[in-house]
């Protein structure tokens, strides 16, 4: 291609970079750090300086990093946002390893799922092994294999991968948006609310930074509007705020070990629950490592003392003694017994990566936020700081990151002045109030599920001796399967609140939804919008609908138009016109996107073929596409203007009307929150409900 | 999870990093740069220094970067490998924008496809527009829409994306393996072969580096074993070596423009071929850019002079004159005429990204390599240096990168002493000879296809005047569709050579393949192995078979076992044992991997249920998986030892026996080259053929 003349715009040079998420608009006054810190050097006196930030995050584990990243992407700069962590680098010895389907959906919506999906271990199936029931020399046999994820989800599996790798992925991306990144080697000493000296920045935190080279420590006072404690199970923020975890420690003791195994056990690469006469084991297959070997995680029950009801103190002492006696050798010994008639051992010397022993406990904080005297939420806790539980259902890292995912958009909407309240946090923001309500509900469900699951898992199945006899494999499987909606993260449902407007039977408005099988995708306020496969009108691309619901902090109006879409005076056309011309422009520019789907459409002769450009006659076989029967000229003008690349056939691939429980003849509208959860569902002509819902959350312009 | 005791191996800390491709083993002596260059500073005298490298690459466009990256991944360090480029950074104003399905498969096998797939524009459909045929005020109408890719491929679409972004992705990955990366601001002045002064490093190149800050130039002499010219259509390497492009320039003149359009044309987001009474236009939809807009590329024909046969000189002059007169305004004017009755214009001021005018020419070099006096290939050319053609079929960047992909493994096998010849390149290496043979064949096909396609595209269709009248839409569609195997990259077939052993009817060995529809996946030496979906035995994972054929430089033996796999004395078991114990170990460790697939298997009573671990009885409905009927104990021990995580059901998802043309009762073996092309196919018991094929390419150990 010998070019002889060429012109190139300078903007074109930027096109080679990875895509950046667009920040949210800011209606509140821009934040300027009123007292920027001078560069800290070790020669300065130890007198604390005072910096100001809009948000301070304490802790950079999965919860803290996720929050930091989201706020940075949404628009908070380094001068406005500070995240500190006591450690000197991203975690390298974390214990969590499981990512649930819903977490994968969220990571995908952030553009962060690829490495995890490529290199992590996909757990697609679960095997159950139980005693054969033969009395002497009793061993185990496979009872069943079932799918690991039994609910519809974009990714029909879990992924296991080193927690440190998740953190490294989050931090690497953070550094695209933040020059500073996480401020390391910095621990929180104290935090308190002091409204008198500065009502706008009422949080006072004292932090201490240790110089990475000379070890000198420097203290500093920082003020902020908000502070989030993502500082783990032993949260100092929680302690300083006088919150506490409530619940009990049960005395089941487990050993956990990550290693490369040598075994003839058939299901070593499946997630496997073994209930053997010699105790329980859970097998978690892990990712491939640089040697080419595959890791395995084993959870091994340490037998044998059961809880003695009414004598908690004695039971706890006994458990403590047993726990102290756990060694790597004893873990292997118990595992070897449980795997019989199969053998299992480390593949070779050095094959053990990490091991630990732990005691199961389920505890949750009664409050996830602390308000100031005006009722404004000022301090938040997230992740392990709010809830601790056993690791075997693979929930910890997931629920923690989802805490932050829930909090981030509410916080930025408030800070950026996008919510209807007064600017500058002069009074309580009801959107922020929903954080505790929503996430505490989920945490409590997590604790309840984990307690039931752990107890069952620590019991025995089908053997003729021991107290576990009453628990059949079928009962265990039932708990496992019904829990899957919850454990997968795909079935959680937030309760009614200002951001979740449930349909009530006594409401005057029509309910456009048929069906109640919400796990399968029926639209339900409070649940996440299920991903479906759709075919785009403009270019015929087959796409995942979730790819139009990226985690960029925007609300989306999903319009499922009805079969009258081609009628210029029909309800679909009217609704699209009202949304586009009246409703969306009445809220801050760039906070609402519109996604439109069409059902089966029949075109009348009068509107078809007006100029021969609508496609060929019916004789050609290449034209089985529904869009061959109509073009943009047959559609409402407002549709192309606002949603040219977000307009899909809802029936060409998945039958999404059926999946979402919407009739093709009547259609429906759903407003989806920035975190992908359905906020409200309304009849197609009920734009009043849509406007009312958005008006409660967004400032009018 | 309150841990009280914890142990962590130090190796675990490495697990947080992205995965690296494992280098290939090296049997030849390690290379140590005999005269390492001192750091160049501008104050040094201009006397040329002399450095030595094993490979020097000239040019860091898509071809050069791909080769550099592959060789670095395969194991060449910065002291052994140098890539120079005259430009100061990765390309920011390149013209190529299309990635074909086969290129996407290769990028995926390198772990480099994700950003491209996420952010690029997927072209899934092609629309054809032709004159309505009404005489006065004739305009265009849509004739048909067809899939853009009509052959089976892992990705059923092309992707369009800025060439600079491809280069940035390649270079970013290169910097994970090479500290230096590309040496920029460095141009090649001269290159020659001089065997007398140093027979092992006979290539002498003179390069000149311009200091990026002070502009001072420094010359240097570098010696190398091999030199690759990936320096574009005006290749200096090609010129110095006395090679030349052969072929003719046709006089079709086209304008090309990248912009954000404002149009009511219905197929602006589809790849579209418009044959209008006013000339031809091709629409190439492009990626979304940071503004949220979508780019469009338009190729616009500049009318109207046709070639006058027999008077080339006159035609060329006329073309030149027309070409010089092309302006952005004239391009838009021609486009506006061709799009009637629709309007098209830049969306706003500044919406034009880049534009150029070009003249179609198809030319190819007669030789892609230059040998020394001993017959050893020493200098190679790749990419545009070997072939130039029109851009409209979206081939350039693809064929160029595939040149390098073909060359890289052959070069590293030779340099690392993995081929059977003498070490240290003392004599000709027949594996290296295949580069010219294979890639020249493809280049010639490219040129031939492009000539036909371009001529047809520049003609007219269906109008009643002009010479294009003879060309019907059906004829054009036919060329387009039959060309799809070639243009997609999925249908190319390398000719017989030492790395491609075709089956001959007169051969004594049995042909295990039924069928000849190679485009649909029937195994064929010289064609790439088609990706299929398989279900892994060990963990039930649904996988793409291509994910076991990553571009890490390894050969793979794909064993399609027969239905006797569970018979310990059957052919399948015998073959697996021979491959595992005799054949694979006789070649360098880590150069051959084995992938195994099984067909429908029925288990005899005697081998089933030996210890109750083979699954449950038939009453449970959760057990429809074939692997429930047998476990590792029923399979040859060699299988698990060598291919535990590369053993699949070939019938649970895709019916791969049928797709590959292999009978389930007889099975087959295919050896797949490091670049994913089938090298040889043999009957399941014909391990002699497999060993013979590998023995011709790999050194015995």
From TrEMBL, chains A, B:
Alphabetical UniProt keywords: FAD, Flavoprotein, Oxidoreductase
Cross-referenced SUPFAM superfamilies = FAD-linked reductases, C-terminal domain, FAD/NAD(P)-binding domain, Thioredoxin-like
Q: Phenol hydroxylase-like C-terminal dimerisation domain: from which residue to which, for each copy?
A: 492-698
Classification via InterPro entries: FAD-bd, FAD/NAD-bd_sf, Phe_hydrox_C_dim_dom, PHOX_C_sf, RIFMO-like, Thioredoxin-like_sf
Could you list the residue ranges forming a coiled coil in this record?
none
Compositionally biased intervals (Low complexity): 34-48
Tell me yes or no: is Oxidoreductase among this UniProt entry's keywords. yes
User: Ranges of Pro residues compositional bias?
Assistant: 20-33
What GO molecular-function term can you cite, just one?
Answer: FAD binding
| Superkingdom assignment | Eukaryota
Question: What's one Pfam family here?
Answer: Phe_hydrox_dim
Where do the FAD-binding domain residues begin and end? 53-449
Q: Where is this region: Disordered?
A: 19-51
> What family is reported?
Belongs to the PheA/TfdB FAD monooxygenase family.
Q: What is this protein called?
A: Uncharacterized protein
Q: Which organism is it from?
A: Aspergillus mulundensis
